[in-house]
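Lecture notes, part 5. Sequence design as translation. It can be helpful to think of inverse folding as translation between two languages: the language of shapes and the language of residues. The source text, in structure tokens, appears below.
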């Protein structure tokens, strides 16, 4: 036994030293599986986001190994670097190809996922496996782990490689024309010269293929650069924690309006945060906010006019709009924040309907010259009307009914998206046209006599 152990220790195994790294560190759980930084599902090879991207359609089976792309292009790391070190050491291409194959075969031990991770499927990317090898001297993996590591190392060693998807199996094809040790030569996209590379067996050799025992479904040549960004969640921003201080403020105060912005996507991104308070607008840029990170943004709002205003803070993609109410106190503060008639009709400036009308004023009228002119006109003519309503309580129910269309339109404008607004406007136009046509036809009939 001792002699056998000594003999084993004397077997030369390539030593490759690179920095330790692993590009996938932020895993998250969803109902259908465990996902990594690139939103690739590590626990299923099926689906557009599965680690092999296998999709079954009416036209056939599509295969796109997303897990391999995590170690290519801008994400080149440990595994690719390990392959690069074989280039200078073995100038002869056939010898280099064999040494890369033997390195993976001899440093990775086959272990089914169910035994290793307690899951039917769990894929590790090439850099994760390579990092374990560097730290521990040996790693464990299933067939897809062997294949992905071997394919990426071949890329680093200046070879073309492809992943071969078989029923319940994954292997590698290496472009090595004229390699006479292969027992079969494969053609990929009409190009001959590809040989089989399956390192899962500890006695396997490069080029040996168990002919008749594998049923190939598809092959995918590994690109020279990554194609992974499409499935990585783009930057997406949310806003929270909107505050305004001091509260309440007084005329001539500077109100500091602050919010927290978070990038809930996976990619870094830039964002413009916009502020609207009455007719006042401002914007701030938040640059290079990394995925999963948050930051603060603040605005200085000069309180010039007394009243109650709705503060709106939003991001360009309109996925998040955060609002709060700021009260500016002063001698000129109009009752009900300027909603004279509505306040008289409802008896209190805090009525929900008045809040809706006030938000509509701040968001749609005070933000443009025409709207500001209409608001100024309303402020001039409405106080006497409001006093008359207050002096005649019997008019209040009638005025409230009359305000219902304005409240309804304001509510729709505030709570619907642009597409929904356009659909409503289109419907109203169609109804109006229909009524006009009906009225025209009715007038065209002339008087009817009995």
């Amino acid at each position: 036994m001792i002699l056998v152990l000594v003999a084993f220790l004397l077997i030369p195994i390539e030593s490759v030293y690179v920095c330790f790294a692993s590009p996938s560190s932020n895993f998250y759980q969803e109902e259908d599986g465990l996902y990594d930084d690139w939103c690739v599902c590590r626990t299923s090879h099926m689906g557009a986001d599965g680690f092999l991207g296998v999709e079954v359609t009416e036209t056939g089976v599509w295969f796109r190994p997303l897990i391999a792309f995590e170690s290519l292009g801008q994400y080149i790391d440990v595994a690719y670097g390990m392959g690069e070190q074989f280039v200078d050491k073995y100038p002869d291409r056939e010898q280099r190809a064999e040494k890369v194959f033997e390195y993976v075969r001899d440093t990775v031990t086959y272990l089914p996922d169910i035994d290793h991770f307690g899951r039917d499927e769990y894929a590790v990317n090439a850099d994760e496996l390579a990092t374990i090898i560097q730290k521990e001297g040996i790693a464990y993996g299933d067939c897809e782990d062997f294949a992905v590591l071997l394919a990426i190392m071949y890329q680093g060693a200046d070879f073309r490689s492809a992943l071969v998807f078989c029923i319940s199996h994954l292997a590698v094809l290496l472009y090595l024309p004229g390699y006479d040790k292969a027992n079969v030569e494969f053609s990929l996209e009409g190009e001959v010269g590809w040989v089989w590379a399956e390192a899962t067996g500890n006695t396997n050799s490069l080029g040996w293929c168990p002919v008749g025992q594998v049923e190939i479904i598809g092959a995918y040549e590994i690109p020279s650069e990554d194609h992974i960004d499409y499935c990585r969640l783009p930057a997406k921003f949310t806003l929270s924690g909107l505050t305004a201080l001091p509260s309440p403020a007084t005329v001539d105060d500077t109100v500091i309006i602050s919010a927290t912005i978070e990038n809930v996507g996976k990619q870094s991104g830039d964002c413009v945060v916009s502020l609207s308070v009455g007719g006042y607008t401002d914007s701030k840029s938040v640059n290079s906010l990394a995925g999963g990170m948050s930051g603060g943004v603040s605005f200085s709002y000069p309180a010039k006019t007394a009243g109650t205003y709705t503060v709106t803070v939003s991001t360009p993609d309109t996925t998040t709009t955060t609002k709060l109410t700021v009260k500016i106190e002063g001698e000129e503060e109009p009752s009900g924040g300027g909603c004279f008639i509505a306040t008289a009709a409802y008896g209190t400036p805090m009525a929900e309907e008045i809040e809706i009308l006030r938000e509509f004023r701040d968001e749609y009228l005070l933000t443009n010259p025409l709207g500001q002119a209409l608001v100024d006109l309303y402020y001039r003519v409405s106080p006497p009307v409001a006093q008359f309503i207050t002096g005649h309580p019997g008019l209040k129910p009638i005025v409230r009914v009359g305000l219902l269309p304005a409240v309804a339109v304001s509510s729709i404008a505030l709570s619907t998206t642009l597409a929904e607004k356009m659909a409503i406007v289109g419907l109203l136009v169609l109804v109006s046209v229909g009524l006009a046509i009906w009225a025209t036809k009715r007038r065209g009939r002339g008087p009817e006599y009995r």
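The translated text above is only one of many valid answers, since several sequences can fold into similar shapes. Confidence is low (pLDDT under 50) at residues 1-23, 331-336.
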